[in-house]
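2024-03-11 09:14:02 DEBUG pipeline.ingest accepted 1 chain
2024-03-11 09:14:02 DEBUG pipeline.ingest length=273
2024-03-11 09:14:03 DEBUG pipeline.predict start
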Amino acid sequence: MRLFVSVDYEGIWGVPSWDFMKTEEASKLLHRELNVLLKSIEEMDPNAYILMVDSHSRGENIYRSMLQCGSLKLDLISGYPRPNYMMTGIDETFDGVLFVGYHTMVGGWGAMDHSYSSSIIYRVQINGKEVGESTINGLLAHYYGVPVILVSGSEELKEEIHNNLPEAVFHAANKTWSRFSAQSYHDALIKLTDKVHKALGRQLQTNDLAVEKPKEATFTIDFLNRLAADVTAELPFVKRIDPRTIEFTIDDYAQAFHAFQAIVFMASSVTRF
């Protein structure tokens, strides 16, 4: 089995805030959860190949020496910038995608809610539907015919996953009390093992979780300030909607995803992190 694992940080068990992420304890929690994930995968398929992508901020959060791979074949992608950012390396050869440590969209109820950039983006819509990172990334997996078989993170993310990535098994690691307060469940890591077993077991049995390839995509991006729109509206395929909003339509989702990433990079260049 070939698995693609994209790892964010905001939905990792026991992590309530960006300030907390700077601590050694947060790094321990991140690697503890990833090692539970890896052990659970190994129990289902000792020969599995995993492409793990460090998908938070600059992609410098996961230390390979702290990962316990066992018999698994694990490649790790780190650093920034890179093509497709949180989905670097995804293609049609994978059997399933797993999202770990994921969070709610900007304006959602989950801790540290945002959509790709908390300092730049106010809202992202695809074809008129407001979406977060899980959906934006998951649709790219669907483009290549690969199902998202597991999503783990903030409990409040469940509805978005249910609506947009219904093939995924969902695991709640934390419950949110405010934007920078979370309750970590005492049995979250035990349940993570169960959910991984369920997700992989279903995929091993059927290997046929059908997903619909996304077609034409219209991205509507509301920025926090007009400067980001001033800059990105210079792209020839972009339409300016209002002082803070741009929009573009591309009939190939992979190309639309690339365009979205380029716009985020451009906007970041004129906005303080």
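2024-03-11 09:14:41 DEBUG pipeline.report The helical segments are 18-21, 24-44, 133-143, 158-164, 188-206, 226-232, 253-269.
2024-03-11 09:14:41 DEBUG pipeline.predict end
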